[in-house]
Amino acid sequence: MIETILANGGAEPSDLPLLLSPAVDPWLEALARLAERRTAARFGRTVQLYAPVYLSNACLNRCLYCGFSARNDTPRVTLTGEQVERELEAVRGAGFQHVLLVTGEAPDEVGLDYLEAAVRAAKRRFPSVSIEIYPLPEEGYRRLVQAGAEGLVLYQETYDRELYAKVHRGGPKADYEGRLQAPERACRAGMRKVGLGVLLGLGDLEADVVALALHLVRLRKLYWRTFFTLSVPRLRQARGGMRPRVAVTDRQLARLIIAFRLVFDDVGLVVSTREPAALRDHLLPLGVTQMSAGSRTEPGGYSQDGQAECQFAVEDGRSPADVAARLATLGYEPVWKDWDRNLG
Questions:
Q1: 185-235 pLDDT, tens per residue?
Q2: Does some domain include residue 134?
Q3: Nearest 5 degrees, angle CA 166-CA 172-CA 178?
Q4: What are phi and psi of 80, to 5 degrees?
Q5: Does residue 223 belong to any structural domain of this protein?
């Protein structure tokens, strides 16, 4: 079977269980080289850099794994309009052109009007603005697209319904179906980019990854004009957060990235600062196309250091300039900007 994948130059979603298993390890180097060739053919030797900007840690959800959970006795901070402007200026000053606006789920405090204003403020400074927020109805996403948002990031966390209920103890996020259907609503609303993912360490890796792949296959058939990305962050330490239920090793993560690239040659693969610097460098050739850099995971983290609690611990603490320099040393071009709506 592995020989067939190597001969064909790619794999099918049905090959994922094999590609994720230790049985592929004797061929892992050859598979890695194939993944690198497929990535270069579609994306070149480029890596897009982006920065997450946390607007609020207010949240109604009682997720066991998250530092923003309503279960935690955490000071809640929602940036004012002026503070949002300062955060965005700080991020722009670091060189970024791609920004991801992040909030918890507290619609009464961080409602659609607030989000719309934040997107407009970001769009005045950045050619590419994405959002990682709570699920919205289609019309809500449409309003944010009109305000300037071009991308949505929304992870199901786990596709195991029973486990999902166990780790989401209350709040709107406990609605499995509502979250599952949100990316489709965003596609219909005109989002140019949609990012899917699972949180590794919650449940069975193979089951979640196969379900994620099938979710992507369905969306790509229905919304073929949308550019999709995949991300598989590992559960990290957070205030009041649970320990990983399932250990996920570096080798398993490498297999996973290779597998995704062999199955999906034109999908963006994202590795965040949840992973250590050395590991992120090693994962690059396997199919990575997007990376965050210099991330702060608390509201006001770029301009008001230490004023709020982090969502999770960052493992790669390098500055954006250091990450860009390292990419260049490894033979990659760090891309700060690669698309503009006026040119698209």
A1: 999 999 999 999 999 999 999 999 999 999 999 999 999 999 999 999 998
A2: yes
A3: 90
A4: -75, 170
A5: yes
Looking at residues 50-59, what average pLDDT do you find? 95
Tell me 244's DSSP state: P
pLDDT at position 344: 41
Structure tokens at 123: 């769009």
Q: What is the pLDDT of residue 342?
A: 44
Domain count, the chain: 1
Please give the structure tokens belonging to residue 248.
Answer: 């996920």
**What whole-number distance in Å separates Cα of residue 271 and Cα of residue 235?**
13
Nearest Cα neighbor of 188 from 231, 128, 145 is 145
Residue 290 belongs to what domain range?
2-330
Q: What whole-number distance in Å separates Cα of residue 334 and Cα of residue 169?
A: 40
Could you tell me which residues are beta bridge partners of residue 290? 48, 270
Report the distance separating Cα 107 and Cα 173, nearest Å.
12
Q: Is residue 340 part of a domain?
A: no
Whole-model pTM: value is 0.94
- List Cβ neighbours of 171 (8 Å cut-off, separation of 6 or more): 59, 60, 61, 62, 63, 70, 105
Is it the case that residue 100 has pLDDT exceeding 80?
Answer: yes
